[in-house]
Amino acid sequence: MADFNVTKREVGDVSILDVNGFLDAHTAPDLENAFNNLIENKNYKVVINFSGLKYISSAGLGVFMAYVETMRDNGGDIKFSNLKDDVYNVFDLLGFPMLYEFYKSEDEAIAKYNRAK
């Protein structure tokens, strides 16, 4: 099995998901579980910190597409931060920058939520 883990932290009312390793069809269910837990706990403001992500497949990308509408319908969003260039290029190639907000740092993404209040 591929090496992947996701951990959750809170910064105020924003949930940070740190994704690490290889996000593919085999590990995507772990990320889905993290999103389901966020929704169960009514945590809709999410920042995904990609600093530890080494690889993402289309299955991994699909997880974000599956949950973004739920987050936005409940006053939140999914914002991305700390992407390595090669990972960002996958998102860029598929047009994600037109659908999601990307930030160089986690702090910038959190600040965007705080300015929206």
Instruction: Report the mean per-residue pLDDT as an integer.
Output: 95
Radius of gyration: 13 Å
Kindly identify the CATH topology of the domain at 1-11 and 27-96: Transcription Regulator spoIIAA
Largest sheet: 5 strands, mixed
The level of helicity is 40-55%
- What is the CATH domain class of the domain at 1-11 and 27-96? Alpha Beta
Alpha plus pi helix count: 4
**Order of SSEs:** EEHEHEHEH
CATH architecture field of the domain at 1-11 and 27-96: 2-Layer Sandwich
The total count of strands amounts to 5
Q: Indicate the overall shape.
A: globular
Q: Report the uncertain regions.
A: none
**In what range is the share of β-strand residues?**
25-35%
Key phrases:
117 residues; alpha/beta; 4 helices; globular
Write the layout of secondary structure elements.
Blueprint (H helix, E strand, L loop, with lengths): L3 E8 L2 E10 L4 H13 L4 E12 L1 H16 L3 E5 L3 H9 L7 E3 L2 H10 L2
Parallel strand pairs: 2-3, 3-4, 4-5
Antiparallel strand pairs: 1-2
Kindly describe this structure:
This protein has helices at residues 28-40, 58-73, 85-93, 106-115; strands spanning 4-11, 14-23, 45-56, 77-81, 101-103. The chain has 117 residues and is α/β, with parallel strands linked by helices. The protein has a domain at 1-11 and 27-96: Transcription Regulator spoIIAA (2-Layer Sandwich), CATH 3.30.750. The protein has a five-stranded mixed β-sheet, sandwiched between helices. Strand 2 (14-23), helix 1 and strand 3 form a beta-alpha-beta unit. The longest helix is centred in the middle third of the chain and has 16 residues, at 58-73. The termini are far apart.
